[in-house]
Structures are given as C-alpha cells and as structure tokens.
Design a protein that fits this description.
By secondary structure, the protein is of the alpha+beta class. The protein has one domain: Nuclear Transport Factor 2, Chain: A. The protein is 40% helix and 40% strand. Strands 2-1-6-5-4-3 form a six-stranded mixed sheet.
C-alpha cells in the first residue's frame, strides 16, 4: 500500500511540474501583450497598441458625477485607443512601469499594469493571434 501511495504522489508531482514550462511560456506571452500595450502607449506605437488589444476591447474609467450612483463610466474602444496612441500616446518613451500577471487559466488571464500615471486592471484572452486585452479598468494616479 505504501508503494502505491508513493507512486501516486510521484506521478502527481511529475504531472504537476511538467506543466510549469507551459505556464512560464504563457506568462511570458501575457507579459509581452502587456508590454505592447504600455510601451505602445508611451512610445506612440500604433502597431504594438493594435496588436495588444482585442477588437471587442472596452477600456473604462470611473468618473464622479451627480447621478444616484455617484459614478459614471467613461468607455474607450480599441479604435480610439489606437487613434490616441497615433497622436503621441503617453509621449514618454522611457516611462517606467511594472507588470503583474495575477492569474492565467487556460485561455483567460488577469493582470495589472502600474505606471507613473495610471493603474490598469486588465483581462486578457488567448486568440489565434496570441494574447490580447479585452477589458481594462483604469484610474489616473
């Protein structure tokens, strides 16, 4: 019985650890999409911005207003993000930022990008073109 348990534990350990290279590759791919997004913005690179964003992207920022909820969501679609990027974006090619990949499960991921100007919470999806951002909730710092 001890032998069977040991074999089961070893099988589990090898199976779990054999998945780590794939997880590392996926994390790197997610980080690359996030770099395209933030560096694309600060360098005014529309190709990188376009590549990082899914066509159905919605970027939102909460703004205080006089409604009963006290908050209004301003939405920015992909087309507007690419347009703003082409007009200079963040105009700071050497801007500092941090990327945090919080979770990856199969074909979805959640992450944060922290720059001097913004805090972005992002959701990504793995498409035929690679990882792309589908949702951004952000705040100016």
């Amino acid at each position: 019985m001890k032998y069977l348990f040991l074999v089961s534990v070893m099988t589990f350990w090898f199976t779990a650890n054999s998945q780590n290279p794939d997880k590392a590759e996926e994390k790197t791919a997610v980080e690359n999409a996030l770099r395209d997004y933030i560096e694309g913005w600060y360098k005014g690179d529309t190709l990188r911005m376009d590549r990082s964003l899914h066509d159905d992207l919605v970027k939102r920022i909460p703004i205080q207003d006089s409604t009963d909820l006290g908050i209004k969501m301003i939405m920015v679609p992909k087309s507007r993000m690419v347009e703003l990027t082409g007009k200079g974006g963040g105009e700071s090619p050497d801007a500092e930022y941090q990327i945090f990949v919080d979770d990856i499960k199969k074909d979805i991921a959640t992450a944060r990008v922290l720059s001097l100007e913004y805090l972005d919470y992002l959701h990504l999806v793995k498409t035929n073109e690679g990882w792309q951002i589908v949702n951004i909730l952000f705040r100016s710092r």
